Amino acid sequence: METKDLEAAIQALSSHKKAWKFVEAFSHELLRGSYTDSYDVANQTAEVLKVVAVATCMAGLKNVRRSLRAVGRYLAGLGGKYTYVIGNVTRRVLKLVQETLDDPDEEFSIQENTKEALSLFLDEFNQTRDTMVTNAAVAEQIHSAEVILTFGRSATVERLLLEAAKKRTFEVVIAENSPRGDGHGLAKVLASEAKLDVTLIPDSAIFAVMPRVHKVIIGAEAVLANGSLIAPAGTLLVTTVARHYSKPVVSCAELYKVTPLFPLSTMADSKLLHPATILNEEIALEIPNVNIVNPANDLVPAEMISLLLSDNGGCSPVVVHRLVKQLYDEVEVPL
Question: Which residues form the signal peptide (predicted)?
Answer without folding.
Answer: none
